[in-house]
Every structure is written in structure tokens, then in C-alpha cells.
Amino acid sequence: MGVMNRFMSFMGLQEEEEVIEREPLAVDEEDFGTMNAEPRKNQRSNVVSIHSQKNVKVVLYEPRSYDEAQEIADHLRSHRTVVMNLQRVRNDQAFRIIDFVSGTVYALSGSISKIGGNIFLCTPDTVEIQGNISEILAEELEHNRMR
Questions:
Q1: Who's near 123: CB < 8 A, 6+ residues apart?
Q2: Going by C-beta distance under 8 Å and a sequence separation of 6 or more, which residues neighbour residue 4?
Q3: Per residue in 52-72, pLDDT tens?
Q4: CA triplet 17, 23, 15: central angle to 5 degrees?
Q5: How far is 123 from 103, CA to CA, in rounded Å?
Q6: What is the pTM assigned to this prediction?
Q7: Contact 48, 94 (CB under 8 A)
Q8: How far is 97 from 134, CA to CA, in rounded Å?
Q9: Other C-beta atoms within 10 Å of 68: how many?
Q10: Which of 29, 47, 81, 88 has the fewest Cβ atoms nearer than 10 Å?
């Protein structure tokens, strides 16, 4: 593990990968002579990644106060996508929560998108968002005004 990877894991920005070492297999004396002459084709690496398949979680969060913003940030640090519904908090509290979570998302190289009235989608860097719902909502509002 390189110095940068160690630093990133220490800061909590990257998960540490566990390294599992396997014991060497017992080798017969007959195979020993042929092993030095030719490398085996089916020989495997001693390092196995246990993070090859992860469960992906999406957290739905409806904070009631600014104090819960840190819990949202903790979910993002754990590489979970968070959908925040800020309709039940006062506007000043909602702005503070958005500011805090936006800073967290920026620090983790993630993204944040508005998907409805006071509803936001916050994703870590491992999740890609395609499309834009905000434009659809704006077009629908304009269409309703023209009627």
C-alpha cells in the first residue's frame, strides 16, 4: 500500500483493503525439480481482494434539525447514496444542512442534485448521476403558467 493510500485511509476518504495471505501449498520432491525449470500456468496470486462485491445502499433521510447533518455526512463517507427530504425543517435550518452536506460531498468528490422541492440526492464518487430532473420540473412549471 502506497503512502498516499495510507494517508487517504487514515483520513477516512478511502477504505482499507484487507490482504489475505495464503500459506504455500506443500510441494512433493518430484514436483520440486520441475517447478524450478518451468513456472506453472495455474499458479495463483497470494493476494485476494475481499471488496470485489459490495452491497449498495441508498439511505432515505428526513432530518428534523441541523444536528442530524453529521449523520448524513457519515453515510456519505461510508459510500452510501443519500436522498434528503428537507421539507420538514425551517428554511434557515435547510440552508445550513445543505451547506454542510455540500462541503462533505465536495471533500469526497461526490455530487449533489436537486430532485424535487427541497429533496436532494447526494452521492459519493463511486456513483454516477445521469440526467437532470430540475430541468423537467422547470419545464413543467412553465407549461402550467402558459395555460
A1: 81, 82, 105, 110, 111, 112, 129
A2: none
A3: 546 678 899 999 999 899 999
A4: 5
A5: 13
A6: 0.55
A7: no
A8: 20
A9: 16
A10: 29
Q: What are phi and psi of 11, to 5 degrees?
A: -80, -10
User: What residue type is assigned to position 35 of the chain?
Assistant: M
Three-state SS for 25? coil
Q: What is the dihedral of CA 116, 117, 121, 122, to 10 degrees?
A: 160
Q: 51 or 79: which carries more pLDDT confidence?
A: 79
Phi, psi of 114 (to 5 degrees): -85, 125
| Bridge partners, residue 10, by sequence | none
Residue 50 DSSP code: S
pLDDT, position 93: 93
d(CA 39, CA 141): 69
Burial 74-107 (b: 16+ CB within 10 A, else e): ebbbebbbbbbbbeebeeebbeebbeebeebbee
- pLDDT at position 128: 82
